[in-house]
Design brief:
Keywords: Thiamine pyrophosphate, Transferase
EC number: 2.2.1.6
Family: Belongs to the TPP enzyme family.
Pfam family, one: TPP_enzyme_N
Radius of gyration: 24 Å
GO molecular function: acetolactate synthase activity; flavin adenine dinucleotide binding; thiamine pyrophosphate binding
CATH topology of the largest domain: Rossmann fold
Shape: globular
Number of strands: 17
CATH superfamily of the largest domain: Thiamin diphosphate (ThDP)-binding fold, Pyr/PP domains
Number of domains: 3
Number of helices: 20
């Protein structure tokens, strides 16, 4: 796999260390060795330092929302932060949608945002912006390095903030004179606190609720959705009669054979309210009590019964696996076998349906695949059809800002080391927000199979329109329909350097999936649905 590093300084060569050099060296010393970039003039000294100091893999994205989405996907698989390189306030603004999603995924990212030289800001040049103000809503930590001597130290703090459980976005703003001035100093890595240990009182409270024998839901999120967390939750559920669900949208969920057949909280309000109506108590494990994605006239915002007790076993920053292990011990829950989901599905046949697509993907995905799911409304029923698939990881859109599926798939392919097949299930409307991801996939020769669900409309919005009690007329449909002209994804992908083909049936889809997974690079399938 290509690794973009350039000529290093010769051994023993004497150089002047500027702020940019100290930044690169500090990032590398702190374990940040991947940079997703879309640089501009203000960042050229940082680009030069990346050229001169070996060790950083630099991946170009053709739009900043692709850059930030790739960094999100990278964290979800690598478990460590990458840095982004963004051009001034407007470049950061272009990446805010997927930084919002990354914040909801609790992904660790170090944003490096160039800015005007400190003395130039007073002249109010065209790119002058309130960069700190734009960064704060999506960042756990924001700082501007005003001097070259501060850059290394600030970078070390930024990495510490990004790596602090459960993961956060740190934004370091780098005026260009801080980058080019001499006097930079590499900073040593800072200690990173681990996840918060379980609260014994919370463990005892959860055990008391589960022992009462009332109807209890254990709602899993975050790290609780990895293999060990699910196995522990299954033990507890089997010992107490509790039910298990995952949050509606999850950053990473390990799924497939050998794991519980775990469904998630439904998206549609009426369906979710009905699904949760029978519970007297909800125990949260790195999760949030379920609420509706949107408000609707006459429908509740909270999806669970108002009289239900809500109990926090572990918060987002908590050690979910340790909390579940402590709860299992408190209950004396024995080991419990996880039922076999039955035979692996056969590829489906006939006209495309959501269920048929899910079965076909489950039938053909390789062991250890990664699914990046931005199927939106089409994919709400995918989970029950994929329980018997080989072991895989499922990544979802966590913040609702569409356009993250293909960037997350791209970053996940890099974060997993490039040796796991990524299957990107992608609605066509949201794909148009970040189709430049395909170019990066081609350049980096990444093993990504993209399935575009081509219905040529914003189907979810047609459903939402009905949800507020109306039927779309000609004016509304003109804003919800993607035809006239139709998007041609085969030609769009080809223009980005990715080979593509169109499928009208599930048989054709299966053939193309199999072919794509036998090849090393990216491939796109436009599935007419």
């Amino acid at each position: 796999m290509p690794r973009a590093t350039c000529a290093a300084f010769a051994p023993g060569e004497s150089i002047d260390v500027n702020g940019a050099h100290s930044l690169v060296r500090t990032l590398l010393a702190s374990g940040v060795d991947t940079c997703f970039a879309n640089p501009g003039t203000s960042e050229m000294h940082f680009v030069a330092a990346l050229d001169q100091i070996p060790g950083m893999r630099c991946v170009l994205g053709l739009q900043e929302n692709v850059v930030t989405g790739m960094a999100d996907g990278y964290w979800r698989l690598a478990g460590k932060p990458a840095c982004t390189l963004l051009h001034c306030g407007p470049g950061l603004a272009n990446g805010l949608g997927n930084l919002h999603n990354a914040r909801r995924a609790r992904s660790g990212i170090v944003n490096i945002v160039g800015d005007h030289a400190t003395y130039h800001r007073a002249f109010d040049a065209p790119l002058t912006a309130d960069t700190e103000g734009w960064a704060r809503p999506v960042s756990a930590w924001v700082r501007t390095s005003a001097r070259a001597a501060d850059v290394g130290r600030d970078a070390a703090v930024a990495v510490q903030a990004a790596r602090t459980a459960p993961g956060g976005i740190a934004t370091l703003i780098l005026p260009s004179d801080s980058s080019w001035d001499e006097g930079g100093e590499e900073a040593a890595p800072l200690p990173v606190p681990g996840p918060v240990a379980p609260d014994p009182g919370a463990v005892r409270q959860a055990a008391r609720v589960l022992r009462e024998g009332k109807r209890v839901l254990i709602l899993l999120g975050g790290a609780a959705l990895r293999e060990r967390g699910q196995a522990l939750a299954w033990r507890i559920a089997q010992a107490t009669g509790a039910s298990l669900l995952a949050e509606g949208s999850n950053a990473r969920m390990t799924r497939g054979r050998g794991l519980p057949q775990l469904d998630r909280v439904p998206y549609v309000v009426n369906v979710a309210v009905e699904r949760l109506s029978g519970f007297d108590h909800i125990v949260l494990v790195n999760a949030k009590a379920p609420v509706g994605f949107f408000a609707y006239p006459g429908k509740p915002s909270a999806l669970y019964p108002p009289e239900a007790g809500v109990h926090v076993l572990s918060r987002f920053e908590g050690d979910a696996e340790a909390a579940l292990a402590a709860l299992a011990d408190e209950l004396g829950a024995p080991e419990a076998a996880i039922p076999d989901p039955g035979p692996r599905p056969e590829p489906a046949r006939g006209a495309p349906t959501p269920e048929g697509l899910a079965r076909t993907v489950a039938a053909l995905m390789p062991e250890g695949a990664i699914v990046s799911d931005e199927s939106v409304s089409y994919g709400r029923g995918f989970f029950p059809e994929t329980y018997a698939a080989p072991r895989h990881d499922w990544l979802q859109l966590t913040g609702g800002a569409i356009g993250d599926g293909m960037p997350v798939a791209t970053g996940a392919a890099i974060g997993s080391g490039g040796n796991r097949r990524v299957i990107s299930l992608q609605a066509d409307g949201s794909a148009m927000y970040s189709l430049q991801s395909l170019w990066t996939q081609a350049r980096e020769k990444l093993p990504v199979t993209t399935v575009i669900l081509s219905n040529r409309k914003y189907q979810i919005l047609i459903g939402e329109y009905a949800g507020v009690g109306a039927n779309p007329g000609p004016t509304a449909m003109n804003m919800l329909d993607l035809g006239n002209p139709d998007l041609d994804w085969v030609r769009l992908a080809g223009g980005m350097g990715v080979e593509a083909a169109r499928a009208e049936t599930l048989e054709a889809l299966g053939d193309l999936l199999s072919q794509s997974m036998a090849r090393p690079g990216p491939f796109l399938i436009e599935l007419s649905v």
